[in-house]
Every structure is written in C-alpha cells, then in structure tokens.
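Q: For a teaching session next week I want to show students how multiple molecules come together into a single three-dimensional assembly. I've collected the sequence lines for a complex. Could you give me the predicted structure tokens for the whole thing so I can convert them for display?
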Amino acid sequence: MTQLALVIDLNVCVGCHACVTSCKQWNTSGSAGSMTDQRPYDKDPTGTFFNRVQSFEVGEFPSAEMMHFPKSCLHCEDAPCVPVCPTGASYKREEDGIVLVDYDKCIGCKYCSWACPYGAREFDEVEKVMKKCTLCVDRVYNMNLPESERKPACVISCPTSARIFGDVHDPDSDASVAIRESGGYALMPEWGTQPANHYLPRRKNKRHIHEDELVRVDNPLKKEGESQTDQGGPFLEDVTSW
Amino acid sequence: MHPAFSVIFLTTLIGAGQGLFLALFFSQVSVVTNLIPQQDSHFYAVGSLISVLFLVVGLFASFFHLGHPERAWRSAAMWRTSWLSREVIVLPMFTLTVIIYGALHYFGFHKNLVGANPVSDVTFIVGAIGAVLCFALFICTGMIYACLKFLQEWHTVLTPINFTLLGMASGYMLVTPLANFSVPGNLNYYADTAIILTFIAFIFRVASLVRNRRLKPKSTLQSAIGVRHSNIQQKAQGAMGGSFNTREFFHGKSAVFVKNVKWIFLVLTFPLPALLVVIGLVSDLSYFFYMAFILQYIGLLAERWFFFAQANHPQNLYYQTI
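A: Of course. Below is the structure for the complete assembly, covering every listed component.
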C-alpha cells in the first residue's frame, strides 16, 4: 500500500519560508477555495496556512545553533484526527494515505484539531471549516502538469532541496532511502500515531586533522630549506601519492 | 485549551437537565418500592418540561460552537468511531423520551401492561428507557473529552464519572425547589439526595484535581522537534500575529486567574449549595433552594471553564512563547 509523505532535512533547511509561501500560493488558488487571511496588511495579521516554519535556538551562545523547523500535517498512518470526526469529513485515503478534509462536509466543530497532538490543522475563520495540508493532492495526480512538477508545491520551491517527497512504504523510494540512511525520525513517537512524514536530523561533518597534515611535504618553503616547521618526517604524505 | 462558552453552557445545561430527569424517574422508582408516598402526576410533567427546556437550551448553545450549524445533521454519520457523533444521536433520543415521559404523566396515561404490576406501567417503562439513554448521554459527553489520549488531564475514567455526578447533583438541586412547591411531603427525600450527590461529586472532582496535579507530560519539546538537548529556546513560531494554534489551545489568562477560578468553583459548586439546602430545610424558606441551584450552576460554569483551561495540549510545545 502506498503512503505518500514528506521527508524534511533539518540539516539543509535554512528557514527561508519559500515552502510556506509557495504552499499558500498554490492552495489558496486551488479548486477547494481560498485560504483566507485576517488583517493581512494591518496590526496582528493572521490567516490560514498549511505549513509553517518555526525556529529554535539549540544550546547557549557561543555553542548554539539555529534550527529551522517546517511544520505541517504529518499524514499519520494511524491518524487520531480521523476517527473523532463526527461527519466523516476527515478521512485518510486508502490509495495513498493522504489525510484530507472534505470541506463540504465539515461542520467546523474543531474536534479534529483537539485530537491532533501536532497542531497541524487550522480552522479557517472565514470559510468556517477545518483546513490542513493536502500534500498537494491536486498537483501530484494532475495530468495537466509536466511530470516533473507533479510534486507538492513546497517540495518544488525549496531552494536547498530540504524536502523529499515520496512513498515511504516503497523501500527504494528517495524518501525511504533518506529515512533509512540518514537517520530519519518521527515527531512525538510516544503517542503511537506513526507519522508518515519524517525529519532528518542535524548532522555535523567533523574531520580530525592530524598535526602533520598541516605541513605539506611539497611546501615550496620547505624545498628551499626555509621551513621553520619541519618536524623531521617521514610523513604520510611522503609515502603516498594523492 | 481555550474554554468555549458554547460548550461550557452545553455540558452544564444538559447535565442539569439529565440530572433533573433522573431525579424524577428515581423518585418514581422510590414510589413504586414504597420508599416515599405517591406524588402528584403534574410534578413529573412540570419536572420533565423543565428538563426538556434545559436540554433544548443546551443543544441551542452547542450550535454556536459550529462553523456550519446548518450541516449539523451530518454529525450523526460516524457513530461507529466518534463519541461526538454518538452524543449527537443520543441527545435528541433522550430529549424525545423525556418529552414522552412528561406527556404520559401530564395526561395521566398510567396503563399497566402486565397485570397490576406498577413496574410495567407505561410511564415507568418509558422512564427506564430514558434513564438508560440519560446515562448513555453522560458517558458520550464525558468520553468526547476522555477519549483524547493526548490531553492527559482529560484522558481518565474520572472525566465521564465527574460529568455524571456533577450533572446529577445539579439536577437534584434543581428538583428540590420544584419538590418544595409541588410535593412538599417528599422535600427531604430530594434535598437529602442533592446534598449526598453534591458530596460524592466533590470527592470525585477533588480526586481528578489531585490526579491532574501529579501528571507528568508525556511529550516534551525534545520529542516534539526531535532534538536531544536540554536547552532549546523558540525564536519564531511561524506567524507574527498569532494563528489558530495560538488561539484555540491557550486559555489566555494568568495562572493566578486560573487558580482563583478553581477555588471559586470548589466553593460555589459543593459546600455553599449544600449549606443553603440545609438552611432552607431548617428555616422552611423556599428562597434558599432556588439560591442553592443558581449558585451551584454558576459554580459549574466555573468548573467547566477550569476543566478546559487546565487541559494542556501537546501542540502547545510548538508555541513556547505564548
């Protein structure tokens, strides 16, 4: 069975919000209607978004680093928001595992948002229905788009390719390989919701430099006998050819 | 969580209405078992009417919680999985049963189906069905909150128990002035039960307060974003002027305010009405019975407000700087 999902590489995300704006642009122009805003150009602007980027400072200066954290619906395999819906407006698609809301059936009781531990759903204050990430279901199957663009808007727009889209049940998909080989993890695993979306952790590429590596064998200064840093050799570089 | 007044009024009003109906039916059981003398049929009819009024006004209040009230009929669809859907089905069924119960009493339709057995009286059978539906409704209402495992403050059997006990206590508080007016001979029966139920409800409500104080949140900021570090500070929440997430899941009041509400409801819901009923019994002034119910109802509004405000949703971990 297919389970489409996103894998978000936190090591690469620079927090530029391109995914947020492209998501809003595509989905507010879609057939499901606009994602409304309140006071967009005024004090305290607010509105409906499917995707948000948050920023966290990990550690304390000077050993601190900023982590940008894109947050959207995780399309849980055991989605807790679906069974609580009294009307059946919230549902999980059998064929690809995308969790969707039927905006024509939603009564706007907000119960599903209470049942989501991630706060992934947002109530549209104008249309009075619950909205959430559709994984751009109207893009990924859209035959009017070239095949290369049949991906979620956020994935296409990401300038650092921090977002990988694919079937996490297919062991050979880019998404599955990334999860498997780059330490992909799920958010709040303690609730057993089995989020389909995964995150790749921050990684440090560390290199230990030996002292002799700082001194080049073919250092021209050394050749001319002017080196002050001659350690006496022989060094690794004397016996290997790079 | 943000306490929504529509839901606060819904749960407290239908709770009192349900409790009132149970008081009526159980008094009929007591009459049948010769615990208390026979009561005027109009007492049941008027009591049922008041119960229905509370149920209908509660239902009306609930519509204000919906974005699309005109689609509310759809919410009966998912009764297999959703407690909210079950409540939507049971509430009108129960209300209808109370209407029938009251009408049968009003028109004096006492027909024994099996011989002279008073248990087979039509009103008694309808009342028994109503009682079953009433408890089912209490369970549905409580389970709407108790089934959400992420909200640890609610995810306990104490939630439906408290909805039931508080509803019954306020129902008996409501029936006491009516009994004083309509069946004064049985006044002590209702007043005593109101005090006892208020006391039992107090024990269970305090039990849930104690339980919730000892709760340890299952999720942490570390598990929420998957970073194993003891010092993480949020710098941006993804929205400048707030979002649905910053409005729906926070009560927006100070800790002192919440604590005050707790003490207000603990005093108004439990000892004060019980004391007023005792004073009413001693002084024989009906005024105190009315006051007892009104004060307890105000206490219950505070109780329900606190019930919502106390619940800390794990999504709040993503909004550290509220």
